[in-house]
Amino acid sequence: MKNKKFLVGLALVGGVAVGFSADVPTPDQVKQLKEMGILPSDVIVDEGNDYFHNLKGPNGKTCASCHGQDGAKLVGAYAKMPRYYKDIGKVADIDIRIKACMTKYMGFPNDKKFKKKFTKKYRVPLAGYVATLSNGMKINVTLDDPQEKELYEFGKKLWYQRVGGRDLSCAICHEIYAGYRIRLQKLGAPVRDKLYAHWPAYRFSKDKLWTMEDRIRGCYKSYFLYLGKKWHKKKDWVKKPPYYMKEIVALELFMKKAANGATIEVPGLLR
Amino acid sequence: MKKIAFASLILGVGAIVACQAPASKAEQKAAKPAKKMSKEEKFRAALAKQDKYQKACSNEKQLVPEGIPLEQFKKDMLATIKYPKGGVVGDWKKGEKLFGDPKKGGKGKGNCYACHCGDPSIIACGNIGPSLRGYGKRGIDPKTTYQRIYNPWSIQPCSAMFRFGVHGILSPEQIAHVTAFLHDSNSPINK
């Protein structure tokens, strides 16, 4: 698996990707990579597939033991997420839902150490794999539960909230100035253009598959700067919200609801 | 450094509570300095620091304040502006580094190239704000430029351009240097 990734790096450096290093590869180039069998995002999703079927919890269960061979019972699930789950009593996004299954149903310890391992190792491949099971289906977030409605409103508030030492909000960059550039980076419109349809997405510039949790954390880290003495000394910034925070799920719910009707095509391929 | 920041945050919270009328039991409990704030708490505390003007701009229009009349808003913002001893026009060469150092690809403390083009040699420039090429030739009063950088909301409430002086991103002296960079006839902005 490592080797495959290394190959991609080589292929990118070695010619296929030269000249567009700061850009998304053209469809032709993607096709070429696909034919060579080395689309890096596929490697990560394959890893998730492997965990899904073969990773046993301390109690011997695998994801497939409950959710079916090839995730048969999870087809279409991602199209409705984040949503409220009765068994855990809260609204969960894909990252949180999978973590809950592992600790609640597979016997993994619900402690800091496992949380860290989950976040770094299992989360992205599994989320990527489960999301692909809804490929070709339309996003359909319904907000039936009061908790979902409340969280959606909270997400909307966060979206428009001007805050921090840069007086910014998500909406300034991704709604008001969508289509403009920050330096050379074009600002997308996740809400208006239903961009959630291509998340989780693989980012060539980072050689990483990101879930929406990673993306939101990234934007908070890069673009919001908080007040406080000597904030410009990096270590005093409030850098980004930790994983699995309610605030993150709220923003996801807001953006995904806006993407209702869009056809899921993941993992997306981004700069 | 981190510890000092925590301490000042906690002291800050404590001081606010102390100035208010007797707090309820629950509030007193909440205000009790925690040993160490969790990352979640730190993030929420940072979000909660939104000031009343940011709040007024947090509506769906984003660029028009709600709840504070426009003229009042501008007046309040104007009152935040502090001026340096040496006047509002400083040293343009220092200003160039702050605006975005050409030797560092246009990066700098002010990071103005994120939103503006200026020096034609810096190609990686954003377009959220208007191009500032030739800005010094437009007959704009340097004092207005200084105000615009120190607190853009004094001219354009809720602008996407952040309040560099208010937040201490740039000091009054530094803003004077950037002002010079925008106005000096030798500056690449005006070449």
Briefly summarize what is shown:
The complex is a heterodimer of chains A (271) and B (191). With 271 residues, chain A is mostly helical. Chain A has helices spanning 2-16, 27-35, 40-54, 63-67, 94-105, 112-132, 146-160, 170-176, 212-223, 246-258, and strands spanning 83-85, 90-92, 181-182, 185-186, 201-203, 208-210, 268-270.
Walk me through what this model shows:
The complex is a heterodimer of chains A (271) and B (191). Chain A has 10 helices and 7 strands. By secondary structure, chain A is mostly helical. In chain A, strand 1 and strand 2 form a beta hairpin. In chain A, helix 5 packs across helix 6 and helix 7 packs across helix 10. With 191 residues, chain B is mostly helical. Chain B has a domain of 123 residues: Cytochrome Bc1 Complex, Chain D, domain 2. In chain B, helix 6 packs across helix 8 and helix 7 packs across helix 8. The longest helix of chain B has 18 residues. Chain B is globular. The chains are: A mainly alpha (271), B mainly alpha (191). Chains A and B meet through helix 7, helix 8 and strand 3 of A and helix 1 and helix 3 of B.
Q: Which outline of chain B best applies? A: globular
Distance between the termini of chain A: 22 Å
Task: Point out poorly predicted stretches of chain B.
Answer: 1-32
Give the helix/strand class of chain A. Answer: mainly alpha
Give the class-level CATH name of the domain at 69-191 in chain B. Mainly Alpha
CATH superfamily of the domain at 69-191 in chain B: Cytochrome c-like domain
| Separation, N- and C-terminal Cα atoms of chain B | 43 Å
> How would you characterize the largest beta sheet of chain A?
3 strands, mixed
User: CATH fold name of the domain at 146-270 in chain A, please?
Assistant: Cytochrome Bc1 Complex, Chain D, domain 2
Strand proportion of chain A, as a percent range, falls in 5-15%
**Mean of pLDDT of chain A:** 88
**Total number of strands of chain A:** 7
* Share of helix of chain A, binned: 40-55%
